[in-house]
Amino acid sequence: MKTLSPVLLASFDQAMKVTGVPLKLQMDYRKWLRFYLDFCLKYPHPPRDPDSLEPFMQKLALKNQSKGAQEQAAASVTLYYDVICYREDAKTQTKPLDTPTETKARQDSIKKAIPADTQSRVVHDEAPIHNHHQASDLTWANC
């Protein structure tokens, strides 16, 4: 599995801190981001495109991931999208990351992307500081 670039990892870690992701879940969020980026590399899905989330969620369902694991994966990927948007917006203006309340509302809305038939499945786990990098530092080729 490919490792995350230092630029992406630093931005993602800061975004987790700012949005209130508990420390005990941060390793899992990083894991889901790596899985998502690997999925996008293996299959024809652009990682920056939010439409890539649904096929990723379907793949997790096929892998018998629980609803909770899928929600956590979706939250991680959505945070990745926020980091990318933040970087792209930073070229022209400063945009703060979501507050914990806004993040919770967004996470609630992404539950709709999770297939309903996975709700009762058993867990099968495989166990922003704004720096002045360009958004291109966060592309998949550099992740």
Brief write-up:
The chain has 143 residues and is mostly helical.
Give structural notes.
- This protein is an all-alpha fold and 143 residues long.
- The protein has one domain (6-114, 133-142).
- Helices cover 55% and strands 0% of the residues.
- It contains 5 helices and no strands.
- The radius of gyration is 15 Å and the shape is globular.
- The model is unreliable at 118-143 (pLDDT under 50).
Short key terms for the protein model shown above:
single chain, 143 residues, mainly alpha, 5 helices
Can you give the helix content as a percent range?
55-70%
Strand content: under 5%
Low-confidence stretches: 118-143
Structural class: mainly alpha
The end-to-end distance, rounded to whole angstroms, is 11 Å
Radius of gyration: 15 Å
Please state the average pLDDT score.
75
SSE order, one letter for each helix or strand: HHHHH
The biggest beta sheet, please? none
Tell me the domain tally: 1
Query: What is the number of helical segments per DSSP (H or I, 4+ residues)?
Result: 5
The backbone outline, from C-alpha atoms, is: globular
Tell me how many strands there are: 0
SSE topology:
Elements: H1 6-19, H2 23-42, H3 53-62, H4 67-90, H5 100-110
